[in-house]
Amino acid sequence: MIYERVRRRVSVERLSSPWTWTTPKGDPLTADAGDFRISDPRNGGQWSITPNALSAGYRQVGPGVFESHGTVRAREVRAGESEVIVGTAEGAERAVPGDWVVTDANGNQWVVDSDYFDENYAPRRELTDP
């Protein structure tokens, strides 16, 4: 299904050296020098993003400040499914029932939990004639 990104502002900084960070499930992911670190001021979360994925899903609105935009495809991992391993640009990430696997227009994939998904993505409304 196609979802719209809810417009949210985040802080973005370019990495000058590799950075390893850990997902809430304990998966270690690694960003390369030249990738970006995103900081979400609403919840203090941090994650990395490649330049390709940054341009696909964010627009710069000020110095070091970007706003999410655009559409993605997403599917919920359902009860009864075994753990799903998603190949992200930063490494392998686990998705469990209730998580969402999100894919942008460039094919970049990542995992988000249901609370984050509900706050940051909305089903795309189809345009209709008046």
Features:
14 strands, 5-stranded antiparallel β-sheet, mainly beta, 2 helices, 130 residues
Topology:
Layout: E1 2-5, E2 9-14, E3 19-22, E4 28-31, E5 36-39, E6 46-49, H1 51-57, E7 58-62, E8 65-68, E9 71-76, E10 84-88, E11 91-95, E12 100-103, E13 109-112, H2 114-120, E14 121-123
Can you tell me about this structure?
11% of the residues lie in helices and 48% in strands. With 130 residues, the chain is mainly β. The chain has one domain (2-123). Strands 13-12-9-1-14 form a five-stranded antiparallel sheet. The longest helix has 7 residues, at 51-57. It is globular.
Q: How would you classify the helix and strand content by structural class?
A: mainly beta
Percent of residues in β-strands: over 45%
Helix content: 10-25%
General shape? globular
Into how many domains do the coordinates divide?
Answer: 1
Number of helices: 2
Strand order of the largest sheet: 13-12-9-1-14
For the CA atoms, what is the radius of gyration? 15 Å
Report mean pLDDT, rounded to a whole number: 93
